[in-house]
Write a structure and sequence with these properties.
The chain is mainly α. The chain contains 21 helices and 2 strands.
């Protein structure tokens, strides 16, 4: 089959009743999870992951998770606009102009702008994935175990991009992940490692309970504690009016939307950067090029469009390194890498030869999910916005119950629930030390890939440790690794500077609003 044959077959596979139900269901769940302050897209994916075990077609399972990703990225803007509290990290910049516009009584206009920009950015990002995935995969198909080891090193180096505010703590977290991955019987030598005579550790710790405990349960427990500390109070959502985004206003924000989409698509394709960085860089660039920069921070439609188009454009472009090289583009795609493996698929160039139809079906599914984001958002935004008014004391127990049930459903073994409980305590200790869990998951996922390919390379090249520098492609990858780490460190510094600048502007804006309300 040729490229266009695969695309045609993929569209036919996606436009079935079952796949469409999973796409709309996943997007709706993502919107709900994304709009709840304190939760995230990663939690939505982990909650939905156990439900995919009953799906026979692996591509359908991954498409449903991508739908959660797409819906969650938009859902984060709902609480950002109505409550001035971003539902996801990628919606932080949306609060700069979304909430001031909502305070002026133009809530629907802000939500429509967010929906328009999110749909535009998501569609372009998905198209880039559709066009670029095959050529990149064809190039990567020439890789041997040497190049795959270098790619795994590149993936581990992404700790610099997902380490939060502290690189040393991020590296420490990643090393914890590598250590956890070593628990159990070594697949090469058959030797037990770090089991300490405990029988349930012989088979290691599965990724699913680790992901649930370290990401989902940690977020829920943390948010519940914060909710109780605040006396169980949450702001009331602003009432959504009836005046939305007009056609002329949509045309006026199109340049900012297109520019942010292009910038964010390139940023998203850079492993380890992600939507959190893209939103600030795109917002800052849109402000510099705007004809009315003085309106930014006071309810600018261009500001909302720049922030929202950037984080949704990242969805498709972040899948490019994941599907073609097996390297996650950000924290969310690190979880998706685990989902691919759990469903018997190994992302990389072989996917486009051995599982080509499934690969293209997943890509087309991502495109269709972004295509349907606009109509679903128009219909469901008002209903989803009401979720932020539900008491968190009701939401948290239900989500926690679902998490433990999902861990048990993975293998049907009670020990997975025990692992969840133990790792939850461990994740709480990490939180106390202000260590992010995403680098740990990255280390957990990539450690075995790195180890297996290193052993294979040593056996193939008679323990020549310099073979990784002798093979041109491997050497280029290692050089790129160094350059990428250097660039991510620079980007992190720039984002920190932008955060400080925006924090000062937000404080000034809040003081002005309080002064106006006092008058």
């Amino acid at each position: 089959m040729g490229y266009f044959d695969y695309i045609t077959s993929a569209f036919a596979a996606v436009f079935t009743l079952g796949n469409l139900v999973f796409i709309f269901g996943g997007m709706l769940m993502g919107m709900v999870i994304g709009c709840i302050p304190g939760l995230s897209v990663t939690l939505g994916i982990i909650l939905f992951l156990p439900l995919t075990y009953g799906i026979k077609d692996p591509s359908t399972a991954i498409i449903s998770l991508l739908a959660v990703y797409v819906g969650g990225m938009y859902g984060g803007s709902i609480s950002a606009i109505t409550l001035n509290t971003p539902g996801t990290n990628s919606a932080i910049a949306t609060t700069f102009d979304g909430y001031p516009l909502a305070k002026k009584g133009r809530v629907l206009q802000a939500l429509d702008t967010s929906l328009f920009a999110s749909s535009f950015g998501g569609i372009i990002g998905a198209l880039l994935l559709l066009v670029l995935a095959a050529p990149i995969a064809a190039f990567v198909s020439k890789f041997t175990s040497v190049e795959y080891f270098s790619m795994a090193v590149l993936g581990i180096s992404l700790l610099a991009g997902v380490s939060g505010n502290s690189l040393p703590k991020g590296i420490l977290s990643g090393l914890f992940g590598i250590l956890i991955a070593c628990i159990g019987v070594d697949a090469v030598t058959g030797v037990s490692r770090f089991t300490f005579g405990v029988s349930i550790l012989q088979f290691g710790i599965d990724m699913l309970p680790a992901m649930i405990a370290l990401v989902a349960l940690k977020q829920v427990v943390g948010k519940l504690a914060e909710f109780k500390v605040n006396g169980g109070k949450m702001e009331d959502a602003n009432k959504i009016d009836k005046k939305g985004l007009s056609l002329s206003e949509a045309k006026s924000i199109l340049p900012a939307t297109a520019l942010s989409t292009i910038i964010a698509s390139f940023i998203g394709a850079m492993p380890g950067v992600g939507g959190g960085v893209a939103q600030f860089l795109c917002y800052n660039q849109a402000k510099q090029l705007s004809k009315h920069p003085e309106k930014f921070g006071k309810g600018s439609l261009e500001g909302i469009a720049a922030a929202e188009s950037s984080n949704n454009a990242v969805v498709g472009s972040a899948m490019i390194p994941l599907m073609t090289m097996g390297i996650p583009g950000d924290g969310v795609t690190a979880l998706l890498l685990g989902a691919f493996i759990l469903h018997g698929m190994q992302p990389g160039p072989n996917m486009f030869t051995k599982q080509a139809l499934q690969a293209y079906t997943i890509i087309v599914g991502c495109f269709v999910a972004n295509l349907f984001l606009w109509p679903l958002g128009k219909v469901m935004t008002r209903a989803v916005a009401k979720v932020v008014q539900v008491k968190y004391t009701y939401l948290a127990p239900a989500i926690m119950l679902f998490c433990f049930a999902g861990a048990f459903a993975g293998t049907g073994n009670f020990k997975e629930m025990v692992f969840c409980a133990v790792l939850l305590v461990f994740s709480y200790l990490l939180k106390i030390m202000e260590i992010d869990a995403i680098p740990l998951l990255l280390g957990l996922i990539l450690a075995k890939i790195m180890e297996t390919n290193f052993v294979t390379a040593m056996m193939s090249y008679d323990r020549d440790y310099f073979i990784f520098f002798k093979r041109p492609i491997s050497l280029i990858i290692l050089v790129i690794t160094v350059l990428l780490v250097w660039s991510m460190l620079r980007i992190n510094k720039k984002v920190d500077a932008l955060n400080e600048e925006q924090a000062e502007e937000i404080n000034k804006m809040h003081n002005d609003l309080e002064a106006q309300e006092a008058c």
